[in-house]
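One such shown below:

_____
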Amino acid sequence: MAWADPKCLFPFIIQMAQRLALRRFLFISHQKLSVLPVSILSKVSAVPCYPRSLVPLTQITVPASIRTFSTTPVYRVTFNIQDGSDFQDRVVNSQKPVVVDFHAQWCGPCKILGPRLEKMVAKQQGKVLMAKVDIDDHTDLAIEYEVSAVPTVLAIKNGDVVDKFVGIKDEDQLEAFLKKLIGA
């Protein structure tokens, strides 16, 4: 049987692997991906798929559901602090007001407040930024800003702490906290 020969199986296996990788990368359904020409799949991988003579000559349009990539940088409203100098650059020296969420991975209330606070900050449409500081990774910052319990949220404007709360707040309270920071 010809399929038992490894030389015949190898291109088939490579094509299947390339389709799987491309489908996972582009989140395209298997049906849409199976109609792509082999020439497109061979450009995705450094491993050649088939000689050009075996590539189908009919060109099929690429589905509109394929995601496009942009080289324009995306400005994130929420970010994780990496170290003290990162905190200085992105929070203390920020032109916009910044909400700083001091949290810990093991803290149950932090896991509730974090997403809620991120959602409320996102609703402000870039008027305020949110920095997340893990107190286990950055104990120096927690000590400097007198964080004695988590979650602790600071409102920093022009490098100064203008407001603070400890514990969980509901969405209305968070909205009032953010409005006060933007208007303060």
User: Anything to note?
Assistant: Residues 28-36, 38-60 have pLDDT under 50 and may be disordered. Residues 4 and 85 are 60 Å apart (CA to CA). The helical segments are 6-26, 30-33, 38-44, 84-92, 108-123, 139-144, 171-183. The beta strands are 78-80, 98-103, 129-134, 152-157, 160-166.
